[in-house]
Design goal:
The chain is an alpha+beta fold. The protein has a single domain, classed as 3-Layer(aba) Sandwich (Aminopeptidase). Helix content is about 30%, strand content about 35%. It contains six helices and eight strands; from the N terminus they run E-E-H-H-H-H-E-E-E-H-E-H-E-E. The chain has helices spanning about 20-25, 30-35, 45-50, 55-60, 105-120, 135-145; strands at about 5, 10-15, 65-70, 75-85, 90-95, 125-135, 150-160, 165-175. The two termini are about 25 Å apart. GO terms for molecular function: diamine N-acetyltransferase activity.
Amino acid sequence: MVTLQGQNIHLRALEPEDLEFVYAIENDENIWEVSNTITPYSKFLIRQYLENAHQDIYEAKQLRLVICKKGSSEAVGLIDLFDFDAKNKRAGIGIIIQNEVDRNNGFGKEALGLMINYAFEQLQLHQLYANIGTENKVSESLFTTFGFQRIGVKKDWNFTNNAFHDEAVFQLIKK
């Protein structure tokens, strides 16, 4: 996989050295709400996942890339294509910037733009979709900046903090 370069960040494939970073993200209960996770992951399972991260998107049905600051291997987040459907030329897309100090610096916006371009130009996808909690206005703003449109709301979809929350579906169709 080629490295995808932006002005302030680059996207790269997962490496075995990313074990601690991925472990920290997957076990951060503050992020579970957006990643639809409810249980911690062991380092053993994440190590196995990283060992199989070399799989092609057509085989794994997922592509997870690390968001790094330009000129550095310092990881700030992850961006995923998931539920990859080659026949229907679509995939889900999600992004997480780990630390609050790295948020609102344009890293997520730049990474999302690179991944959208990669999905449409390299993978020849026709559409992308994102599932975003209706209370997550920051993510909604990020995705709509790129032309994603809200196409529906799944009522009481996620149960977090002892309450049900709605989740919106956003879709971007290649023009």
